[in-house]
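batch_manifest entry 22 of 60
target: AcrR family transcriptional regulator
source organism: Streptomyces pseudovenezuelae
requested by: lab member K.T.
priority: normal
notes from requester: please return tokens only, no post-processing; we will run our own comparison against the previous entry in this batch. if the run fails, retry once and flag.
--- input ---
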Amino acid sequence: MPAPVTSKGERSAAELKAAALRVIARQGYLSTKIADITAEAGKSAGVFYRYFTDKDDLLRSVVDDFAVALRERVTEQAGGPHALDGVEDVRGHVRAYWDTYCAHRAEMTGIYEASLVSAEFAAHWEGMRARHVDIWTAHVAEARDLAAPDRDTRLTALAVVAMIERFCQLAAPAESEEEGDAAVEAMTRLLAHGLLRPEQPN
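--- output ---
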């Protein structure tokens, strides 16, 4: 069992988590070994096991940190009330997810890859997706008021979320700000043409 964490221990644990995120960003979670993390952090295996029981235990801690950061970022990005009245609104929602994904790509990669082999992390991943789908379900309903009635707004929202998720996995990180802007614009145009009245995207 990990030892109680002191202020010095908190720094060591934080250094291990930061090192783990750097390694995961380079080579993925499933390919990351504890030895990779300790080497990156400049710590011994003994130090690692002082704070974490195994690699999954470290990821659980990262997931908790990520959940707090994600809530704060979404609140900041959202600003005012949500709406989906035109292309700019679609672009704003795509940009919020893209920026969040890029800022936390290692965490997203870790949770996603762990979800492929762990029921526990699959539940984390599905929970994040469900919250995203909830948001887009409301947006799709608003957009369909402008276009045509949709028999299943949640299914449409799931399609939107699945596209955005997979697109970010493949396109992020962009090599430049211009490439990032182009990625956001590509997804924005695709979604806008599917969700809004034909004459609205321009």
